[in-house]
Design goal:
With about 475 residues, the chain is mostly helical. Helix content is about 75%, strand content about 0%. The longest helix is centred in the first third of the chain and has 32 residues.
Length: about 475
């Protein structure tokens, strides 16, 4: 009589290998239609690279447009939702402070980490879709929010919720969309594709500022308070669904799909950590970017009005013109970075910026005029744009594909929160201890020096070649 064979509770090595291979095949069946084939799951042809590029950049621009429109409309929102009349609740002041100045920055790191981790697990497209869905909810709340006169304390609470959702969504947009843009890029164009992240932000700034100027010119203050302030939010609400459906039809990046499937092979564990050096280098470059945006350009209106005594509408015009020039220079710098050494371009732009920022402000302060302020902002804008057009791609090159969205989100949002979110505190402190109207420029110089030091430690390597194939280079 034949005895039955004994079975072991543990699977053999071939069996484990077979199970792993079957798991990989199943993963590929789920992800390949979203990245590597010419048709989607529903049989429709996959969107072209150009269509996916437009969907990513336009979606990124709309995310920042809604965030910036809120900032432009802050004085009106303050009057309508946080009145300072005697019968208003004292809680309004607390809500005003939290919602208008802190909520967005508080939620950006949270949104960045959550959506970044989601993007590294489920894919860049999934994270961008989730972020845009949250932004749509935020815009709906602001577009139809009742004022304090209508809804009482519920009105500022709605504004606070909208602002929190905005910050959460925008916080995750940078990491996921930047990673997707560069992973989408064809060979030899990673620099150009990466620069479009900043170009999208500048497009949002130009569009939002131009719309703000147009509305304040076309409507009286009473008309703005009566409802015209909702127009920018309504425009965003009309455009965002279009970009949402464009993004829905995108396919996942090949680099992400390849990394996920190869990681599941036995012996190919996921990278457990990133180099500490790469985080410090990344945060240093973001610091230089943050002080440029939040002090050099954000401080322009206040500086022109309080120190130079230049009319406010002229300073707004200077800002808009500088943003337009930067929007053109940024992608050109990205293309240059695909042909020339990126580290040298970063050092040259930051070094030039550092060399001219103080002399330019002294020059414009000696004989204040619209013309001198415009020249000052254009010169600094061009140098800043060269840096901004290169650094996004370099940031992506620092981090492995599997942890890229999370790493970018952490580095970007923490640095922006410290050097951007607290910029007004540091600028005010410098003004107090120095008594000089030039004090904010010292803060800019500090940020530029930090950026220069970070770039100086950037390893000399051509890691964009690795990014084209979806693999990461050695970390610094």
């Amino acid at each position: 009589m034949q005895r039955p064979m004994k079975t072991s509770g543990r699977c053999s090595a071939p069996s484990r290998r077979f199970d792993a291979t079957r798991k990989i095949i199943n993963t590929r069946r789920q992800l390949m239609p979203l990245a590597l084939t010419s048709h989607g799951p529903d049989g429709r042809a996959a969107p072209s690279r150009k269509t996916q590029l437009v969907a990513t950049v336009l979606g990124n621009a709309m995310e920042w447009y809604d965030f910036m429109v809120f900032a432009f409309m802050t004085p009106i929102i303050n009057r309508l939702f946080f009145p300072s009349s005697a019968d208003a609740s004292p809680l309004n002041s607390i809500l005003l402070t939290t919602a208008l100045f802190g909520a967005g920055f508080i939620m950006r790191p949270v949104g960045g980490i959550v959506l970044g981790m989601y993007g590294d697990r489920k894919g860049r497209k999934a994270a961008m879709m989730l972020g845009m869905s949250i932004m749509i909810v935020s815009v709906i709340l602001m577009t139809f929010a009742p004022t304090y006169a209508t809804a009482g304390i519920a009105a500022p609470i709605i504004v606070l919720i909208s602002r929190l959702l905005q910050g959460f969504s925008v916080g995750g947009e940078f990491g996921t969309s930047t990673a997707f843009l560069i992973e989408l890029a064809p060979p030899g164009k990673t620099g150009f594709y990466g620069s479009l992240q900043i170009a999208g932000q500048l497009l949002a700034q130009v569009f939002g500022a131009s719309l703000g100027i147009l509305l304040t010119t076309a409507f009286t203050p009473d008309q703005m308070d009566a409802g015209a302030w909702r127009i920018p939010f309504a425009i965003g609400l009309a455009i965002v669904p279009i970009t949402f459906f464009m993004r829905r039809n995108m396919h996942e990046s090949q680099a992400f799909v390849r990394e996920v499937t190869e990681e599941e092979l036995p012996g190919n564990g996921s990278p457990a950590h990133q180099s500490i050096g790469s985080f410090f280098i990344g945060m240093g470059m973001v610091a230089a970017s943050a002080v440029s945006f939040y002090v050099t350009f954000g401080y322009t209106v206040t500086y022109a009005k309080e120190v130079l005594h230049i009319p406010m509408h002229q300073s707004f015009l200077v800002q808009t013109l500088a943003a337009i020039v930067m929007m053109l220079v940024v992608p050109a710098a990205g293309m240059l970075s695909d042909r020339f050494n990126r580290k040298k371009l970063l050092l040259a732009s930051l070094g030039g910026y550092l060399a001219v920022v103080y002399p330019l402000y002294v020059w414009v302060g000696a004989e204040p005029s619209f013309q001198r302020l415009l020249v000052t902002q254009l010169v600094m804008g061009v140098l800043s744009a060269i840096f901004l057009g290169v650094y996004c791609t370099v940031l992506v090159e620092l981090y492995a594909v599997r942890l890229r969205a999370t790493s970018l989100a952490i580095v970007n949002n923490l640095a922006v929160m410290v050097f951007g979110g607290f910029s007004q505190f540091f600028v005010t402190w410098l003004l107090r201890i120095t008594g000089s109207p030039m004090a904010p420029i010292f803060y800019v110089i500090l940020g530029l020096v930090i950026g220069l030091v970070a770039v100086a430690f950037l390893p000399e390597r051509h890691s964009y070649i690795a990014i084209r194939t979806g693999r990461h280079a050695a970390h610094p």
